[in-house]
Amino acid sequence: MKESEKIRICIVVASLDIIGGQSVQALRLLEGLRGEPGVEAELLPINPRLPGPLRFLQRIKYVRTVVTSIAYIALLLARLPRFDVVHVFSASYLSFLLAPTPAILIARMYGKPVLLNYHSGEAEDHLRRWSRTAIPTMKLAHRLIVQSAYLVEVFGRFGLRAEAIFNTVDFSRFRFRRRAPLRPVLLSNRNFEKHYNVAAVLRAFALVERSVPGARLIVAGDGSERANLHALARELELKNVEFLGPVPPPEMPSLYDRADIFINASDVDNMPLSIIEAFACGLPVVTTGAGGIPYIVTDGVNGTLVACRDHEGLARNVVNLLKDDRRAGAIVEAARADSRKYTWEAVRFEWLAAYADLAGREYREARPVGEPTPVTEPAMQATVSE
After folding, report:
1. Is the pLDDT of residue 386 over 60?
2. CA 352 to CA 143: how far, in whole Å?
3. What's the burial of 122, exposed, middle or buried (CB within 10 Å: 0-12/13-18/19+)?
4. Which helix (H) or strand (E) is 337 found in, with range?
5. 362 pLDDT tier (thresholds 50, 70, 90)
6. Which residues, in sequence order, are CB contacts of 262 under 8 Å at separation 6+?
7. How confident is the model over 151-162, as a mean pLDDT?
8. Cβ atoms within 10 A of the Cβ of 378, count?
9. Three-state secondary structure along 12-69?
10. Do the bridges between strand 39-45 and strand 114-118 make them parallel or antiparallel, or are there none, so unpaired?
11. Is the pLDDT confidence value at 241 over 90?
């Protein structure tokens, strides 16, 4: 295929200087698209680094926001004209105003089709509180993609049509390992923000530690609640909790390998990538049922669910799994089977078809229409043509 025939895609997202699910998913998308002959994709960071002598400005509070925003808008103005499709990753609230909004407006100014890829579990509150700005801006996007049926329903209540395409996990990096018997080694890797309620994980572990000799908790992450969480760990007199701080994505596979149970206590959520990674690695998942989590975790089948803020329920489910290896093994195997839905091969058709539609190209399937496509193999081939 000639270079001029390829669909050129600009992916607008935070770089890995900001550790988060959006940047990880953007890199997974780039990796997948590099193997597709019909497209050419590049990343445009919302947080570009200033050149040499000006970089010190990004270390100054408030000044950092201003100069980074100016650099970001300058990049958008300079680079967007040469792309066919602008794929904008999005969070909520002020972040939506500062990052996706300029990209959408500048792309529309240049007449470029926009795919808005919204990732926040706080969508409902965001759309309700910021309805006068967020909803009209989102309507400027030509397609709105989310990660779960949960967010499709949320956006539908505000008159916005969204489509779901799952997050993906790189199975070549996340190694599945059977754990029998389960060790009482728990892992939490959510950011230290109130809506992720890592405090409930600590409270749950305090109960586990009292009843299970040798229980350990590994906590990875950072955020505004850091001081409060360290203070709570001291108040609860936790003996075997290890705070690792922020862990870069390349080191996450080895972190999952250290643990035997994944625990999550979020109060607000969408489709946590960490739960899918736990599925892929063989850790049974103990979690609250916040937001979109029940759309990927079925209680007693591929994980266990409790109500939000129920740290006692979390502790009880951890202890029950440790007591019943057969049940834990069945949950792990079901989760492993489900995790195949979250591979590039399983979602590539949907992404390529979306890009082709936005670019006004024809999308051709090599497989006959209607023929089933196994999600465990990269069986569906496609080409994008004029």
Report:
1. no
2. 13
3. middle
4. helix 325-339
5. confident
6. 186, 187, 188, 256, 274, 275, 278, 283, 284, 285, 286, 287
7. 96
8. 14
9. EECCCCCCCHHHHHHHHHHHHHHCCCCEEEEEEECCCCCCHHHHHHHHCCCHHHHHHH
10. unpaired
11. yes
